[in-house]
Request: fold
Amino acid sequence: MVGGGIGGLTAAAALRLRGWDVIVCERAASLDPVGSGLSLGPNALRALDAIGVGQAARGLAAIDGVSGIRRYDGRWLVRADVTAPMLKKYDDLAVIALRSELVDLLLSRLPEDTVRTSTAVSAVEPETGTVTTSEGALEADLVVAADGVHSGIRKALFPDHPGALYSGSTTWRFIIPEPGHGFRTTESWGHGDVFGIMPLSGKRIYCYASAVASAGQTFEDERAELLRRFGWWHAPIPDLIDAAEPGEILHNDVYWIAEPLPAYHVGRVAFLGDAVHAMSPNLGQGACQAIEDAVVLASLADQPDGLARYTAARLPRTRMVVQNSHRVSRMVGLRSPWATRLRDTLMWGVGRLGSAAVIRQTAPIFEWSPPRLSIR
Reply:
């Protein structure tokens, strides 16, 4: 396993359940907590159920059935309580969890010596499974490349692929103590800018923002930059930004894989997560699709032509999610007054159709169910 993120750790837990001996090579010195939240849709929760941690993941999370989209001035475009229709259709809700707590949950399914930190992978031989690391060579029957959006293994094994492209948007994320009560999941749209509010368990709030910007920009004071961009938006956005610790605001550019790879495997190497289908965060499916990948891979890896079947199962589905997420990214990134007015009017119309119409839009993603993982 190359990479100790959500996808890599889920794959490690799923493969161990299937009887594989697993080593996770993580180049970072430690799996430090990352100050961000993530959304787990019913599809991801079912995948986590397959490895025995779904209920625990639900227990970590703030269950959220009420959500909406607002304009930057506070006017509601879409406001829906989807609790009852989601439970009826999916027997589950989308939940919002702290990424570091999900990492800890996945680590609890692995022996302590599974993850080798400070272990960088410099080369992989796909035909033999030889992995060259900073700590020496390893021999593997299966190499799982979960090494992220700028995957070195992808670059080496698909040298002609254009790789990850800058999406045109940059993002900020931070977590603060909940300053009061009654917060719901909302996303506010401006002219190319977005600000999201997600309640977490433990009386915490996860906030994220995105803006159309040139790649590679950094700011000496990220909070001041957020206040410059969003400090005049509707309440409580300015107060939430003001409550953030400047040194704990994460700022990252968003990259995505616009051109799908021809396959999600080469020889003994299988790719998963951002390494093979990085997407914009607008559908909240980045981690969810990596979790799906992991469970499907574990179910097929020891079968005849298992990795080819893995590609066949995952490439069309993840491509659909990547494309849909990019469409939403382009829509929320509109900047001209005329285009944003038309967008907001269309969203207002969707909101008038009610929560059932909102739920129907999620069906292609949320209806997915994982394969059964037999314990070996």
